[in-house]
Amino acid sequence: MRVLIGTQRVVDGLSFNVFPGERVCLLGASGSGKSLTAGAILGLLPASACAQGSIRVQGREVIDLPAARRPIDVRVGMVFQDSFSALNPLVSIGSQLQEPFRRLHDLSPRAALQAAIELLDAMALPDPGQIVRRSPAELSGGQRQRVCIALALACKTPLLVADEPTTALDVVTQAQVLRVLKESTGRTGTPALLFITHDLCAASELCERAIVIERGTLVESNRVDALIADPQHSFTRELVAAARDGIGLAPRATEPTLAAGA
Ligand SMILES: Nc1ncnc2c1ncn2[C@@H]1O[C@H](COP(=O)(O)OP(=O)(O)OP(=O)(O)O)[C@@H](O)[C@H]1O
């Protein structure tokens, strides 16, 4: 897969899979092409950028399909760093969360509201019956981010891309959001996760496998524990030197949920 801005290849020859039940992190320095990779996978590249090569979701080619034109079963859920701009400030949390349950899952308004409250409860949000009545501005950043995760999960996509979802949060709130992401992805009946970050500690708490890119090119790919124990590339060595130790789990080998290729 490549992403071009004009004639410049800002992502070049990047090739990796995310399998069902996996949580994979995409690591790279600032400007290395992580967000453009996410944008290509989501079908949300800026107008100035263009993706080439192959991006398959559940085996289906989607590289030329912007998010809004993708069939429901190959859409990709997303959680971004800025939870405030991801939500409509004028619409209550309940109405925003009801929408995917009504539109995609055909639930009645009452059943959709109940499903929204149950999902917020699973996100470890206190008093979800009250939270659904509030607007985004009436929540803390960590609460809003968990609402964004709930919103992404409500769409029941096979893959969730989380682009630096904890960067704007304090360390305690980061831990809560990481816990919720871990509990709600990477298992049967939940989406696989592509977690985009330059925080190796967060990556090691959440993910089993890591892909490291530099200047839009893959430079290292391994299990997170192996990567931490024996980093090969200079950027990975710098990341490891700056991070505390973590643990990783073995990836599971089945049909890929996502296959991005050149
Ligand atoms: N809309 C755009 N127009 C022109 N260049 C862009 C655009 N978006 C990104 N770029 C350039 O493409 C490269 C990769 O950007 P990208 O946002 O993917 O990096 P990143 O790894 O996500 O960085 P960060 O960690 O700082 O968010 C950078 O050099 C950036 O300046």
UniProtKB/TrEMBL annotation:
It is found in: Cell inner membrane. It is a peripheral membrane protein. One of its GO terms (molecular function) is ATP binding. InterPro entries: AAA+_ATPase, ABC_Ni/Peptide_Import, ABC_transporter-like_ATP-bd, ABC_transporter-like_CS, P-loop_NTPase. It holds the Pfam family ABC_tran. The keyword tRNA-binding does not apply. It comes from the Bacteria. Keywords: ATP-binding, Cell inner membrane, Cell membrane, Membrane, Nucleotide-binding, Translocase, Transport. Residues 1-240 form the ABC transporter domain. Belongs to the ABC transporter superfamily. This is ABC transporter ATP-binding protein. It comes from Sinorhizobium garamanticum.
